Every structure is written in structure tokens, then in C-alpha cells.
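testing teh design pipeline on a random one, pls ignore if ur not involved
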């Protein structure tokens, strides 16, 4: 069993509808655990940086206007196979086509106003988590910056307390 982290975001449409806590409840029910949370608002420039991979696409202006239109909630989620697991929970990009029960089907509207974001690769988890949380903040929360974007082995089970060292055949002098 390998623990992984992913970066999730509740987008402005869902925050403004008051869906944030319903979304977090669905996330928790899926077995993923929020381990860092921040509510903030992206400027247009920050939205452009966050979605730089889509620069030049026809939806880029609308996307960055939308993402800077109101508050968002960013979360680091922890769990087994968190990246693909959360992508599955979100559903497909277009809320109209997303499978029943997925976050985008339940809380989004269409291909642009689709309620939630989720990282799609370990490299992007690192980049996107770093966008919202400093290494120091994550460390305070018990998340190693080295573990973000990486699959980390679970902590070794704690060993039983070692008995007081007693030589098997104490030598009598
Ligand atoms: O978010 P996801 O990874 O599923 O999709 P994407 O292809 O990386 O697109 C990023 C975001 O751009 C989407 O979540 C939508 O909000 C927006 N988008 C849009 O407004 N119109 C499209 N035709 C495609 C994406
Ligand atoms: Mg994407």
C-alpha cells in the first residue's frame, strides 16, 4: 500500500453555491484525507500561471476569468493512489458528460464551470501544491515536501519495545 498526495481545488462556481463542504464530505467518504486546506482568491495573473499549460487554447481567457472570479478552496489530499483516485471521483471534464455520483456531475454545470480541479501527475502535484502552500507550511502540517508529488511507502510498523539488553550467556567474572 503506497500513500500518495494530490492537489484538489473547489472552483469559484462551487464555492459560490455553498458546495464546498458537501464536496469535502464526498472526498472524505472516498477514503481520501484532506491534510492541508486554504481558502483564497486567484488574481487573473495567478490563474494564468496556474493554467499556463493551456495558454493559447481557445478557452484560456474564459478559464482564467472564471478561475479569478471568486474565492477557491485548495486542498492537499492524502491517500492510496490519491492522484488517479481523485481524478475518478471528479469525473470527466465536462459536467454534462460526467458519470453519475462524480463531483463534476453533482456540483458542476458544463465543460468550463465544472466545480473542481485535480492534479493529473506527480510533477503537477508538486507544482500545484507549491502554488498554494509553502514547504514550511506543509512541514508544520507533517507533510514532507519530498513526499509531495511522490509515492511514499507507509511508515514502518512500530517495532515492539526492545527488551533491556541482556546477554544470552552472561559471562560471570
Ligand atoms: O480539469 P481537467 O484536467 O479535467 O481538464 P483540462 O483539459 O486540463 O482543462 C482545464 C480546465 O479548463 C477544465 O477543468 C475546465 O474548467 C476548462 N475548460 C474549458 O473551460 N473549456 C474546455 N473546452 C476545456 C476545459
Ligand atoms: Mg487538467
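output:
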Amino acid at each position: 500500500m503506497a500513500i500518495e498526495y494530490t492537489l484538489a481545488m473547489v472552483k469559484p462556481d462551487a464555492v459560490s453555491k455553498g458546495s464546498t463542504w458537501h464536496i469535502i464530505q464526498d472526498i472524505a467518504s472516498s477514503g481520501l484525507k484532506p491534510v492541508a486546506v486554504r481558502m483564497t482568491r486567484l488574481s487573473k495573473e495567478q490563474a494564468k500561471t496556474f493554467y499556463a499549460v493551456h495558454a493559447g487554447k481557445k478557452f484560456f481567457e474564459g478559464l482564467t476569468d472564471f478561475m479569478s472570479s471568486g474565492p477557491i478552496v485548495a486542498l492537499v489530499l492524502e491517500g492510496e493512489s490519491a492522484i488517479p483516485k481523485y481524478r475518478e471521483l471528479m469525473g470527466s471534464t465536462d459536467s454534462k458528460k460526467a458519470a453519475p455520483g462524480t463531483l463534476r456531475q453533482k456540483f458542476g454545470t458544463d465543460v468550463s464551470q465544472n466545480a473542481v480541479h485535480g492534479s493529473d501527475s506527480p510533477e503537477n502535484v508538486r507544482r500545484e501544491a507549491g502554488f498554494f502552500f509553502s514547504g514550511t507550511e506543509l512541514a508544520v502540517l507533517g507533510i514532507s515536501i519530498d513526499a509531495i508529488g511522490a509515492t511514499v511507502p507507509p511508515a514502518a510498523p512500530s517495532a515492539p519495545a526492545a527488551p533491556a539488553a541482556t546477554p544470552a550467556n552472561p559471562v560471570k567474572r
